[in-house]
Amino acid sequence: MWRYFIRKFNLLVITIFLLSLLSFSLLHLMPGLPLDALNPDGSLSLAEQRRLVEHYALEQGFWQQYAQYISNIFNGNWGTSRIDQIPIFDQMVSSFMSTLQLAVSAMALAMFIGVPLGIISAYYHGSWFDRTVTSMSLIGQSIPVFWWALMLILLLALGLQWFPLSGRIGLLYDIPEVSHILLIDIALADDEYQRAALWSAVRHIILPTLAISVIPMTALIQITRASLIDISEKNYIQAARAKGLSRYQVLWRHALPNYFSSFIRHVGALTNPLLTTTMVVEYIFDWPGAGRWLIHSLVAQDVPAIQACMLTISVFVICISIITDLLAAWSNPKERNQSHG
Amino acid sequence: MALLGLLGCEPMDMPKPKDGLVYCSLGTPSSFNPQLSTSANVVEATSLQLYDRLLRIDLDGRSFKPALATSWQVDDSGTRYRFKLRQNVQFHSTEYFTPSRPFNADDVVFSFRRIIDKTHPYHYVGRSDYSFFVSVGFPWLVKSVEAIDPSTVEFELFAPDSTFLSNLATNFAVILSADYGQQLSARGERHLIDKLPIGTGPFHFYRYKEEHFIKYRSHEAYWGVAPKLNEVVLDITPNGTMRLAKLLTGECDAMAFPLANELKMLREKPEFQVQYQNGFNVGYWAFNTDTPPLNDARVRKALALAINRDPIMEAVFYGTASIASSLLPPASWGYDATASAEAYDPQRARELLAEAGHPDGFDLDIWLLPVQRAYNPNSRKMALLLQDNLKQIGVHAHLVNHDWNAFRSGLSRGDHDSVLIGWTADNADPDNFFRPLLSCQAKLAGTNRAMWCDKHYDQLIDEARLATSFEKRQALYSQAQHYLVEQMPVVPIAHGMRTQASGEHVKGLTVEPFGGIDFSSVTIE
After folding, report:
1. ipTM of this model?
2. Which residues, 6+ apart, have CB-to-CB distance to B159 below 8 Å?
3. pTM for the full predicted model
4. Can you say whether the dihedral through the CA atoms of B370, B376, B381, B385 is positive or negative?
5. CB < 8 Å from B in window 222-281 of A
6. Transmembrane region positions (chain A) (predicted)?
7. CA-based, 20 to 30 A from A57: which of A93, A120, A186, B457?
8. Residue-wise pLDDT tens digits, B82-97
9. How far is B254 from chain A (nearest CA, A)?
């Protein structure tokens, strides 16, 4: 396990190093001098430009600048946004947490529905139910997510008017951001309208969650179904059946534990598509998350914000993937001996 | 899905927190001080919510109502204006500022010196050129602003100017707090003055998130009738279709500027109301009077006679505009109904062209306004209709498209033959139409799209500006309008309406003719 852990840790360090290098180079890859990229409309005064030059060590060599960039990141000094002068770190935390909440709720919904459907499909393999679920999941997988999101808006927000179409809570509620997790913040808020605020938050999250969850849900249905069918053809399952265990007992006692031992790895692999989808959907629903922030920063050519966004999201995805690998290895020694990874 | 159904079937109207209103606004304001910018976003977000002016303009656009000044008098020379100020007016008390005294003359002096006095500590804060005040010549007009006593302020002008009070009544001439200015100076945080605003208006600043929302709370010690709403939230939604969608789902109680082609849909729904107000604007077709054959007034008149405005009203404005017969909208006191352009008459137009020596017509470029405005929501469509009209008299029009910057710089240089453009007035004074659009001064400043410089016309509007008697001014502006009909440097086409839509539960919301939106007397039922 330790050797495995060290191998993974090395991988993590190297990847993060490369990512930070990439995100750092963004400033140099922009057309013109790095200072022009930080001051695209030329509106900064000389003193402010001076401050930027110092903050990014722009007068020194490439590697000194890189070292300065890394030390700024570790000091929590991520610079301030060009647009509204808010520290980028605060903005990043707030918008990234808000993205995460959406992604987690979509993943939860996907697991809650996708895994049971996959199990039932595998159990009744070949039945009409299986065929329906398989074709539905195929359809779900092939629908572009933004089209699906717009259809949800058209039907449930504009048509039936059940749900609001933008934001994460009614704007009249005043919930101070303490933990950056909306449900906790609502609970902490000392507000007579707490229940109404909670209700508003729930109504706001439903449509984007439905829109995002389609991707991980269809993936989970297919993975669960395929792995269970695969497992059920293994010799030990055949042997258990031959011993006289019912199909149900075989599924419950042998096939499912086997499947769940690699489940965490599947979930880890879904992190990247999940976050990408979330960022697209955020933009459609005007959800104040990292995706919306990234697009606004791109439009405003706010390079420090783009760097921060890119670095945070990619590091997060790498970390999740390595953590799920480690968890899988810890729970299942077989996984440790893979030559790759 | 059953679960979703249950959630959805709950009543839509959970108790709204406090008496609040959400308004879908046009865009992120560049600052919270309308002195600095003429942008519609800034005016909408701040002027009528956070601030008061010394006086307000009445709806007829002619007389003034007291606001922070209770009375005022002009001396005989017409250069000294003395304002008596209202007592016991409180500035906003917020998380970042506690006023140490009520409003007095120092605040007025502070607010206007900031604009005209380059040595004022706040003049360069916010890096603004105070574009509205510069465009009306304010820094060269006002000699001094002095506090005579705590409740009296005197403005001294270099020369009499009958538009002075109108300019003080605009959305831009707001009163800031000198007390706040001193506190910020003492803390070394002057840059905050336009970011964390303090005023005397019916609402005070509470929270702001760039590109997302602005939250205002009611100013409890407001000197006027206390606002009924506890909270006003501006949900910043630049996209017109998105604003409409939010109004439909109830996320916004009111919205700014519904697109003309969506109005019909809104009018058909009983749960919404659409408000209109004739705007103080004009959409027009300007001829470059420096280039032949457009330097001949007969040719310009012929082109004006050739266009039929009725289809334009239908196809371009969907009924949200009125036909313009003068630069001035009919609601202006300077408007003269007898000085209206002649109606559609292609036969007469052909005769005039022949008289001017162009019996077979000529070729003409029409530049298209690259943005949507109330006075011209679709310049391409308008130009296509004009093109068709002009073909009847043998004039071949070519439509020219430019992006915004090329459009503006090309127009200033006079590269165009003719252009479809317009103007929105900042105040009700007729001078605000005549001077910036057609004076020789405007030609130098690069805002005169007709490149027209006419001594007689300039003399008329200069005299009107200096005249103090109302009747005299009216007569002079009437002469100016008759002269314009004769000369036809521009063809007025339409006065666009300002529109807004709201849910029927919103009561008391009106459209302000000069921009901005006033929530102080709005209630929610």
Report:
1. 0.79
2. B79, B141, B466
3. 0.80
4. negative
5. none
6. 9-30, 102-124, 145-163, 205-224, 263-285, 305-330
7. A93
8. 999 999 999 999 999 9
9. 14
